[in-house]
């Protein structure tokens, strides 16, 4: 590679480049690896041109190498340092990389090479002491005479130019000496001390290590990409010629010396011996000193050389002598031609004279034809007898020889001469004639057998033949003569030629897969072609045969079956003869080889032009392989931006690679022109505001719904006519639905067709609904209104339940049951790691809600975590299994037909319900024995306080003023060590009182870890807060009455105070279903703990009354079905048995119908065919004692009620 020279002078050794590492003793040079300073006798490193210098007396020039032999020994003794090239450092102090006027050879990553140092010059330019053959003799004690001034050998220019010699060897030598020869592989300079290799075709010189690496890469690429048509060998890096000999050791130019040493005064890399290479067109060897490049033409005299005909001879210079073609004297040849009668009349020529073309009058052998033909086309001249067939004129031409003549060719006529019998004639083609007529072949002495040759005539019962004219008798045997087709003649023995064969044979088609029956082809068998198309692959692997009835299809099938090498033993029919034609890597040429497998070879073409980068400062010198990309340039890109902004600094790059985008921000209008967008990158051309286009479409009724776009790109741009693709949207006159037809522009909607919009029809109770089409038309405007659904059994059941809920004052929207759909194992594992378990539950619920998902795979986890997933999947109704061994064992969940839906309650909710049931069970375990409980049951349990009550508030007091005044006290109560509470203030409509209700702040983590605030804790917190609130109310005059505690049951209909402070019977005075709601939470008090024994259960049970609702019909049937009483022998055992049965029935009915009340819980009765199911609110955490309740039978809308107690 080459670049433009560097400008500006550079002092010796101060310029840092890779060229010309000369200068002071510390400077480096790459001219050769040797010790000490440069030899003074070789100022130009052994250039072939002889340099002269003036003699000491100035009278005559003295050759520069005159004192070379004397200086070699002394110079080797003065070596003071080891360097690379001229790395001798006799006394320099600085380290430089160039000299003044240094030239950069490769601007991208190399500097130029400086000139060789001048002998006798030091770092500073002064002379160094050295040996001089003309110096005066040194005499001890005598003054030293002044030194004789030496001529200045420094060249006029510090940079030596490339050689301009006329011959290639001299240019190579001088360029290597001047450090101007570049290796075509690494682009570094080839120096005198470099080990080199030279191509024997293009004479390109490269480094030996470079060409060995090149050869290794070529062979490796050939092994990786083998192909049937790839040429053997490797490519020369200079001319791309195919070479078979791998690069060997370092040799001189002529190849005689291995690892030659540099010789001063001789060309680089020469051995100093005679070249002695044989010239291809000359018998003389090269007599020059070992040199690079081709040998020059021979200047010696060549041998004496005769002309082609041998009549003359001449002697010329060896270079002018044509050893391969010879020379012609331009005289007639005169050699005897092959006919032996005539001589060659051509000018003196090379090679044989050829056939004789002299026309000769000739007669055929039978004498019937006579014509002139070339002498070379005549056959053998034979004597033939004239039996009268020649013309008389011909006989008179040669008197005395009228009976015999010479025939020289064979005509196309038959002989026609009569045999000796005089009855038959000869039917042979033209042949020489004898003097006597031939014996008749039908004579009785010649014909001894019948025509088929199987029976002798003398053995046949026929009269013997007397003359040739007598017919030849034939036998009764078949002829059986072999016909041309290979069959035998089926006819009976006959005279003459056999008839054509009429047999039918089976002939296979060309591919051999089908057989056809046909008449015999008389020996010329032509195989028919079937319609089967051959699908065998050709040897290229890219094309199929495709020929109909291919003869090589069967062989190809056998080859594929044996799995032989696809590139070997390929049938001739399946060799692809197409040209490959694929694009080569260079991108300019196509592969011209026959179609082949594998990648194509590298492009064999070469580029003989400079390859430069985009800016032109980095250049690759020719020759280069075709497809070589421009070199990488280390200089900055100089392209100017069209926008005018400063360019981002980046390296020079090809034109195909764009410059980095302009990063400057600016204001640009959006493509629709409605908005001006700020902070838009300069390179961004299509900024969009995101607003709808809203332009009127061609129909005039609709607007474009597309977001910001270019002009002419509205949604109706591709639609012809005055319509668009949007729905019409006009209101139909028949049904008030919009027209769903495509835009019909100026035409009215077609309301004679039924409306296809969807609407709903419902039953009278509005529970059932069904989606139907409107079907309205102009003639029938409301067909859907005429059709309605009928209420079903479920509607009637819901109506009865709704009536019962209104009678019992139950809100169905806030009522839930306390059933836990999860197993104890699942809840236990959930409590151990709540946060992780909630993530898995959420993922499982998403899987259960997706109908298209059938399998869910979790990531690998520990055994305890997998156990939780298995338990949770079982509760969901899903199948689960663990797969893969540890540490990759994971759980897979599958949906099966038994899966219906996910449980409605989450694990956190069920854990809270279980915790509340456990707390109630702990409270129930502390109840007194049955005897004491019977007396205490008359005193109902008091409900915990959950609100503050302000009596007689100030006139005009608002909720906001009260909240602002009590905010510090309420906030202090929430920050205390007690439970986290939230307060809600409201005025009671029925009395002049203000209610401040406290609600505990519950979280899933608090419930799961048993830290949820209990009602007793809320009551304790309100008791401590009451004093502070009373002081604030009194100080600010917010209310005239006192501040007291109360219990509030809230419902969407009303807020009811069930207990006030100081009112001990507030909870029992209400009675009815409110009492049932307050005690119904004992359903699971025993289930949360271990099941006690029957005796313990009977002791802990508190006397209570249970409501039993049954159908009247069921009671009547029960009363009528009176079983026959048995006679008990021991009446005491019978009484105890009856008491146990009564106690057991009471327990079963209590478990089925008792429900626990909660903090805000209510009891909802759901009626289904006269049976009441009681459920309590699952969020309740209030513990209440059980009390007897009597229910009036006159509840409106309810069936008969029976009270046990």
Tell me what the structure shows.
This protein is of the alpha+beta class and 1205 residues long. Helix content is 19%, strand content 12%. The protein contains 19 helices and 36 strands. A five-stranded antiparallel β-sheet has the order 29-30-28-31-32. β34 and β35 form a beta hairpin. Residues 1-129, 153-157, 394-401, 924-939, 1004-1010, 1064-1114, 1121-1127 and 1152-1205 have low confidence and may be disordered.
Q: Spatial order of the strands in the main sheet? A: 29-30-28-31-32
Distance between the termini: 115 Å
Computed over alpha carbons, the radius of gyration is 63 Å
As an assembly, this protein is single chain
Number of helices: 19
Main sheet properties: 5 strands, antiparallel
Structural class: alpha+beta
Task: Name the poorly predicted regions.
Answer: 1-129, 153-157, 394-401, 924-939, 1004-1010, 1064-1114, 1121-1127, 1152-1205
Number of strands: 36
Strand content: 5-15%
Principal-axes geometry comes out as extended
Average pLDDT level:
74
Q: Can you give the helix content as a percent range?
A: 10-25%
